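Researcher: First entry.
Model:
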Amino acid sequence: MKSITQRRYLFITLLLFAAFTSTAQTADNNTKKEPVMKTYLIERDIPGAGQLTAPDLKSISQKSCSVLTEMGPKIKWLHSYVTGNKIYCVYQAENEALLREHGKKGGFPVTNITEIATTISPATAKE
């Protein structure tokens, strides 16, 4: 009987030890967090943007991608919407300064930058 009780205590001790070390590892991992990437909408005033040709848009896209490659993983272009006289670009970046740097290096105007708090869609109505 004493042997079974000792085994139970040993088992409980091992479980507690495992839980403690798991928590300690999680705490260690939390101190090395990846930087938070926020999502932004960039408004660019570009007269005649809606009349840009496919080769023009390809060239602009290639320039943007080359600047992004140079800048590294702290900034990412998701997609853009081309309208009559504006292009609206959706980016992820650690901060707004990186977006302005990208615009300057690429020669892209930056009219306005807005951080996107969240997104909704028709699927939101069903959730």
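Researcher: Second entry.
Model:
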Amino acid sequence: MGFYHFLSLGIILFAIGVVGFVIRNNTIVLLLSVELMLNSVNLIFVAFSRYLYGTEGQIYVFIIMTIAAAEVAVGLAIVVSIYRLFGTLDISKIKLLKG
């Protein structure tokens, strides 16, 4: 497989993540869409790192994976507290932050 195969797969995965983030109202699906976008960026970084013979892309991947792990921990804690408060995970029914 060539470089353009990995690049096109990363772009397709990122587009699926964006569509999932924009269209869906469930907070779990929104978090999964963000994770899909982060992982597609990781795939593109690794592809560039592999084909340019550098290690910078792999270092960025470790940084992004660390941020993604922190995002999951904080995001799931927020989702659990929102579910306990409202009894639903539908974004359109939660109006706590609207002014």
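Model: Note on the second entry: The longest helix spans residues 56-86.
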